[in-house]
Amino acid sequence: MSIKGRVVTSLTKICDSCSAPYCTKIDEQFDITVLSSSRKDQSGLPEIGDSDPSVIYVKPGTEIDIDSSIQETIRLTASAKSSCSEACEKSPVVWKRAGNQKKRYSQTWSKLLDLKRSLDKAPS
């Protein structure tokens, strides 16, 4: 038997570039193959997540639990590196230095530079 499913949801993530929260949508399909096993001892059978996570072995008449497959689909999709926008991902932060020289820094460092500035302003 084959189970074809689709996960459609949305969740709030933090942008990898600017650390701002944003909403992202997940719309992924998954396929699971269910194989019947008449063995009374299930210990020798592979479980979900073994060599092929899309195959589930069950005894006839047993309910199939696909929760872990759905969770894995969401986890794999949501764990991908992402930004709140394409512009944010590509744009560097420009900081001015003494003498009107400009130096470019990656967005990745912007929060650390903000923290440094706030610590520099703090009274000793």
Mind explaining what this structure looks like?
With 124 residues, the protein is an alpha+beta fold. It folds into 2 domains: 2-85, no CATH class; 92-124, no CATH class. It has helices at 67-78, 86-90, 110-121; strands at 2-14, 21-36, 55-58, 93-96, 102-105. The strands form 2 sheets. The protein has a 3-stranded mixed beta sheet with strand order 1-2-3. A two-stranded antiparallel sheet has the order 4-5. The longest helix is centred in the middle third of the chain and has 12 residues, at 67-78. The N and C termini lie far apart (69 Å).
Summarize the topology.
Elements: E1 2-14, E2 21-36, E3 55-58, H1 67-78, H2 86-90, E4 93-96, E5 102-105, H3 110-121
Short description:
The protein is 23% helix and 33% strand.
Contiguous runs where pLDDT drops below 50 for at least 5 residues: none
Largest sheet: 3 strands, mixed
The class by helix and strand makeup works out as: alpha+beta
Question: Fraction of residues in helices?
Answer: 10-25%
Question: N-to-C terminal Cα separation, in Å?
Answer: 69 Å
Estimated radius of gyration: 24 Å
Number of helices: 3
Q: What value does the average pLDDT take?
A: 76
Total domains, how many?
Answer: 2
**H/E series, N to C?**
EEEHHEEH
Strand order, sheet with most strands:
1-2-3
Proportion of residues in β-strands? 25-35%
What is the general shape? elongated
Q: Work out the number of β strands.
A: 5
List keywords for this structure.
124 residues; alpha+beta; 2 domains; 3-stranded mixed sheet; two-stranded antiparallel sheet; 33% strand; YceD
